[in-house]
Amino acid sequence: MEERLISFHEKLTEFLHQKLSLVLVIVGVFISIALIISGIKYYFQYKERKAGQLLLSASPQNSKVLKNLVEKYPSTRAGLEACLILFAQAYQKGNYKLAQKYLKIFKSHASSYFIPIANYGLGKIQEEKKLFDRAITIYQKNVKKLRPLDLYLYLDLARLSKKAGDLAAAKRYYQAVLSEFPDSGFSSLVKYELWVLQ
């Protein structure tokens, strides 16, 4: 009986020794992964904080700081905001090539939710270049992708359709404004435009 107990004890000890090593290795791997993930999170939080401080310290007119922010921290919220500010500045100055550059940077780093904003900017550039068909195509592809932007997309589509002579499409877009945004500040204007198109 004693020999059986000793044998059982030895087997149990050997089994635990083998499995304990495996369990310790698995626990070690999980701890290592957790440390790596927390280090990466800390790095991104630090990067986000640093970029935010840079953006707050810069005035919107200081394009040098904004460009530096876009170069160093393009994937941060502050970097994306700097892209949009630089886009707006280039667009207002008529430098559409530079404006497109900042929209491209924005699109490559922004979440898919915000891509319609960049596409809307591209549509505006196409309008300024008198490429109305391209602008219409861009706007049509982005309707229903970002709800707050839809009102402006419909208004621009109606305006451009009217300019292109497609009055049926213009009516459709104006009616979409009235049906989807009945309380917008544009209701009176849209009703007037529909009356003119009768």
Structure description:
The chain is mainly α and 198 residues long. The chain has helices spanning 2-57, 63-72, 77-93, 96-109, 115-128, 132-142, 147-164, 167-180, 187-197.
Beta-strand level of the residues, as a percent range? under 5%
Given the structure, what is the number of helices? Answer: 9
The helix content, as a percent range, equals over 70%
Mean pLDDT: 83
Query: How does the helix and strand content classify structurally?
Result: mainly alpha
Overall shape = elongated
What's the N-to-C terminus distance? 106 Å
Q: What can be said about the biggest beta sheet?
A: none
What is the succession of H and E elements? Answer: HHHHHHHHH
Number of strands: 0
Q: Topology of this protein?
A:
Elements (H helix, E strand, L loop, with lengths): L1 H56 L5 H10 L4 H17 L2 H14 L5 H14 L3 H11 L4 H18 L2 H14 L6 H11 L1
Helix pairs in contact: 1-3, 2-3, 3-4, 4-5, 5-6, 6-7, 7-8, 8-9
